[in-house]
Amino acid sequence: MCTFYKYYNGEKTAPVLTIFIGGNHEASNYLQELPYGGWVAPNIYYLGYAGVINIAGIRIAGISGIYKSNDYMRGHYEVPPYNEYSIRSVYHIRNLEIFRLKQLREPIDIFLSHDWPTGVTEYGNCKQLVKFKPHFQEDIDSGGLGNPHTEILLKHLKPGYWFAAHLHCKFAALIPHSNQKVTKFLALDKCLPNRRFLQILDIPHDTNMEKKIYYDLEWLTILNMTNHLLSIKNVTHYMPGPNGSERFNFTPTKEEKEAVLMKFENDLVVPLNFEQTQPGHNNIVKSLAKSDQRKLNSQTQQLCKRLEIDDPVELIWKHQPPSCNVDDTIDISVSDSFINDSDMIEENDDLPLDNSPINKSSKLILPDPKNPDGLNINDYNQSAITLPTSTQRDCNLPDEDFGRNEENDTPLKKFKRRNADMYSTLE
């Protein structure tokens, strides 16, 4: 916890290629620099507001954020410094990303989301879920547990796997589709002692291909053709539909994809072009510098120029003057106050807070990240993975473990959401 700056400033390097989406506890101001995805640090790749990539023959799609109906139809208007409302709304899913993902037609192997699609509880052990999280029952009964728009995506895309998080519990389900396909859904718990937060799956892939990330041609073409639908206004923004006069089907044709491929000169490899946009913190004092020296992310700028699309942050800045004083700096010492409960945003605005005390005798001890000399993004060894003994029973489950949870599990003691005491000893 609180160590990402070490990866950002080069002190450490992720030992394996890592691909992730945003939830509702990320550094939103940083992720906003990469709306279409990019490297947040060497060997750590972010999918953006929504994105599709290919690696070793596996097609991975994802959407960042959580669903809130009040913000779903708004534009991407937020920009730092955030106010009391926009600091939350910035990570709320928008209809533009859902609309773009609906245009996909080629098969998806893995889909990532933070919150769950609504309805998945019907296909797993709902009884065990409610036993562990009794306050879910009301939302399950009303159909309000999860995101209704990703439920539509689930039924439309029919991915082989769907991975989620957010609700702080493990849940597996098998979701059948009309074409005999089945989606294996898996959500895991938060990373705490005696919680089921880790599972390793072996997904078939092309072992002859290098472990490089490739842009997805269908997705790039959709971004290019729907650029005019991007809004940066804090107003209701509708997507085109069949009853309107404008084009509403943006599933790319062969000719449209070929035109975009030419823009990339037939090379869809994602470049290793990570670049710091702000000075990295040191491990003694974290400085939060307020500055009018706005700097756009070069990764986004390069992609937007080649694909002929707009960077939403750049569009906002063109219409909004800097509001911060370059001389203002806040120094925050590394102490318990840095992770005080009162300073943190709740993980789930819809769910009640677990106020039961934590067992202070339990300490979360994670191994230091590896940083071998000469680490190369393509040279990591996926097979050399050693699992901690305490999680072994959850990490090697066969495929048939999807769709069930152990009936005889005893409900685990609830933890206070922030668990600050467990992270109070920082490096």
Question: Can you walk me through this structure?
Answer:
With 427 residues, this protein is an alpha/beta fold. Helix content is 20%, strand content 12%. The chain contains 12 helices and 12 strands. The strands form 3 sheets. A 7-stranded mixed beta sheet has the order 8-9-7-6-5-4-10. A 3-stranded mixed beta sheet has the order 1-3-2, with no helix packed on it. Helix 8 (217-225) crosses helix 9 (254-263). It is globular. Mean pLDDT is 80; it is low at 324-364 and 372-427.
What can be said about this structure in brief?
With 427 residues, this protein is an alpha/beta fold.
Q: Mind sketching the topology for me?
A:
Layout: H1 4-8, E1 18-20, H2 28-31, E2 38-41, E3 44-46, E4 50-55, E5 58-63, H3 86-89, H4 95-102, E6 110-112, H5 126-132, H6 137-142, H7 148-157, E7 161-164, E8 171-176, E9 182-187, E10 214-215, H8 217-225, H9 254-263, E11 285-289, H10 298-307, H11 312-319, E12 329-333, H12 392-395
Parallel strand pairs: 1-3, 5-6, 6-7, 7-9
Antiparallel strand pairs: 2-3, 4-5, 4-10, 8-9, 11-12
Helix pairs in contact: 8-9
- Percent helix range: 10-25%
Number of strands: 12
Question: How would the global form be characterised?
Answer: globular
The main sheet comes to: 7 strands, mixed
**In DSSP terms, counting alpha (H) and pi (I) runs of 4 or more, how many helices?**
12
The order of strands across the largest sheet is 8-9-7-6-5-4-10
- Beta-strand residue percentage: 5-15%
Q: How much is the radius of gyration in Å?
A: 22 Å
Ranges with pLDDT <50 over ≥5 residues?
324-364, 372-427
User: What is the SS-derived class?
Assistant: alpha/beta
